[in-house]
Write a structure and sequence with these properties.
- This protein starts with a helix and ends with a strand.
- Among the domains are: 90 residues, no CATH class; 210 residues, Urease, subunit C, domain 1, CATH 2.30.40.10.
- Helix 10 packs across helix 12 and helix 13 packs across helix 14.
- It has 509 residues and is of the alpha/beta class.
- Helix 5 links the parallel strand 14 and strand 15.
- The strands form 5 sheets. Strands 4, 5, 6, 7, 8, 19, 20 and 21 form an 8-stranded mixed beta sheet that branches. Strands 14-15-16-17-18 form a 5-stranded parallel beta sheet. Strands 1-2-3 form a 3-stranded antiparallel beta sheet, covered by helices on one side.
Length: 509
């Protein structure tokens, strides 16, 4: 046991030295008869050692060299093999953002984790209607007891013991729901905007694709802020679209290196942008799987079915599905227009969707693929909403949006995992309530109010891989919830009737 521990300790220290001083070193072994072998040492957590062998360009000929050449051949390859195994053992590890050989995390977290109330306050909220975010029934006259920043007990009044020292808050006539989770929100060091959506009930967001520096201001706020999950700059292909927000991927190794770098810096997901070629999707998803984070994409040029088969966990934007749903001819026209001019997508996505046949075999197959792969759909409908009669809105745009809504209805009926998201702003949304407008649109697309609430709470928590902490009002979870003045189970628009918000056991004032 002592010997094993000592050897393991030596291996760890030696491994760290190799990574620190010899990263990128190329060991080259040459043999005049049979060519060159090259070993590349890397400090990247790829568990991959490149061993390249190629024939010599001018091998010696002649009978006298045959036996010695064959012996040299096997000696060389045995040496290379053992050296490869040694360095593969020394240089391999699971995840750079944790300690050497640490396990892949089962739960991902926000970058602004808070300890909660400093005085370990016990609070009891009593008398309200409770929609806990699970598939259970609503509870009338409910009680939720909070100890510090955690939910200690949940149930009906009279069945839950309220501690003698608890601060009791009467919530009679109100409805409690879990804090809302927004899967697609963008900010650029805009603390006031984050404060606003928190007061309106959004307690957690994920920003898919903005650089880490866009959230520096978060750590200087003196007020409660939503939980913020980040991904780092999105991965795009040359020439890029938003270059100041992107990493332009050079090759597969660079793609994987970027994934690990983002995770080390606190990324809890990886965002692919629409000019990244399909050939890099699999290296990205392989690296992300090793690092324990999901991958999601905004697509325009790559068909969604191909992207899903390459390992995507989620599709951001309903419009990302257009090329896979359209006829090959219309899809190619769209791809040509957008490839030549990225901004053409703003017009052509509506032209494409206005002609999509949602009763086609292509539609059915894509939906089946999404269900079988448990691919999350983040439709961001509010961002693409077009209403007839609005100034500057063309008929084909209205038709296109109706088709988007119809696809969401079909996908939901088939069992696709659909989650709530705002994309920050919507033309028909009240300021600060874009996520609530998205919830209204999901209801219009056929989801019941309770299904919409789950899509914007517990389902998103699963998509974020943090469902053991957030997303529902259950014992042991963090105390994030919203008190509403009206019942959203009767009308989802009542989600805008916010009375009070609690995050991490603290009331938002």
């Amino acid at each position: 046991m002592v010997l094993t521990t000592t050897l393991d300790s030596l291996r760890r220290h030696f491994t760290l030295l190799i990574r620190q001083y010899f990263s990128g070193l190329v060991l080259q072994i040459s043999n005049p008869f049979f060519g060159t072998s090259k070993i590349i040492l890397s400090d990247r957590p790829q568990r991959r050692l490149e061993l390249l062998m190629k024939p010599a360009s001018q091998p010696h000929e002649g009978k006298s060299f045959r036996n010695s050449g064959r012996k040299a051949f096997w000696n060389l390859r045995f040496g290379v093999l053992t050296t490869s195994l040694l360095f593969a053992y020394l240089c391999g590890f699971s995840q750079d953002h944790l300690l050497l050989d640490a396990p892949v995390p089962e739960v991902l977290t926000e970058i602004n984790i808070s300890d909660g109330p400093s005085d370990r306050t016990v609070q009891a909220i009593v008398g309200m209607r409770l929609i806990d975010g699970t598939e259970g029934d609503m509870i009338e006259n409910a009680v939720v007891v909070i100890d510090g920043n955690r939910i200690a007990s949940v149930g009906k009044q009279g069945e839950v013991e309220i501690p003698d020292d608890a601060e009791v808050h009467d919530a009679s006539g109100l409805t409690m729901v879990p804090g809302l989770i927004d899967a697609h929100y963008h900010s650029v060091n805009n603390n006031p905007a984050l404060e606003t959506i928190l007061k309106n009930g959004t307690t957690t967001i994920r920003d898919p694709g903005h650089p880490f520096r866009f959230y520096q201001a978060l750590f200087f706020s003196q007020k409660p802020m939503p939980r913020v999950f980040v991904t780092g700059a999105h991965l795009d292909g040359f020439p890029g679209v938003y270059k100041q927000q992107a990493v332009l991927i050079r090759n597969a190794a660079h793609a994987q290196e970027t994934v690990y770098e983002h995770v080390r810096n606190g990324g809890s997901g990886i965002k692919i942008y629409f000019r990244l070629p399909l050939k890099y999707f699999k290296p990205v998803t392989d690296a992300a799987k090793l690092a324990g984070v999901p991958v999601f994409a905004h697509l325009e040029l790559v068909p969604a079915d191909s992207a899903i088969m390459a390992g995507l966990d989620g599709i951001e934007h309903i419009t990302s599905l257009g090329v896979a749903l359209a006829s090959p001819e219309e899809g190619a026209r769209f791809q040509d227009a957008v490839f030549n001019n990225s901004n053409a997508r703003r017009e052509w996505r509506y032209r494409l969707w206005s002609g999509i046949d949602l009763n086609s075999e292509r539609t059915q197959k894509l939906i089946e693929l999404m269900v079988s792969n448990r691919t999350y759909l983040v439709p961001t409908l509010a961002a693409f909403e077009k209403q007839a009669g609005s100034e500057g809105v063309e008929e084909y745009e209205v038709t296109a949006f109706q088709n988007m809504m119809e696809f969401v209805r079909k996908a939901h009926q088939a069992g696709v995992e659909i989650v709530g998201s705002s994309h920050t702003w919507g033309e028909y949304a009240d300021p600060g309530f874009t996520l609530q407008r998205e919830m209204e649109l999901l209801a219009e697309a056929g989801m019941t109010p309770l299904e919409v609430i789950r899509a914007t709470t517990i389902k998103n928590a699963h998509y974020f891989r943090s469902a053991s902490r957030i997303g529902s009002i259950e014992v042991g979870k963090l105390a994030d919830f919203v008190l509403l003045n009206a019942n959203p189970a009767e009308n989802i628009s009542n989600m805008k009737q916010v009375s009070r918000v609690m995050i991490n056991g603290q009331w938002v004032e």
